Amino acid sequence: xxxGRVIGEVVASQKEPNLQGLKLLVVQNTDVSGQLKNGQVVAxxxxxxxxxxxxxxxxxxxxxxxxxxxxxxxxxVIMAIVDSVTQSGNETYSKSQDPx
Length: 100
Known about the structure:
Elements: E1 2-10, E2 23-30, E3 36-45, E4 54-59, E5 76-81, E6 84-87, E7 90-94
Parallel strand pairs: 3-5
Antiparallel strand pairs: 1-2, 1-4, 2-3, 4-5, 6-7
């Protein structure tokens, strides 16, 4: 799993029939404190995420293991919206304190 921030949406009126009904979001990689890093991906949203939220996502063949993406031609899927991250007893990210 990877962590990232949703920074945008992708709208495609014409797409592969297996992708119909799937929401596509642009995710920018972050570190565990929510600071942006290099790298972006378009991911299928399986949990109702929105722009600005920190999410967990999977890429590659793992992206086709959710109920929303099973046997669909996807390479990334958002699987969770992050509420908080704690490392070595210290909270490094909290959704309630995120200015975004």
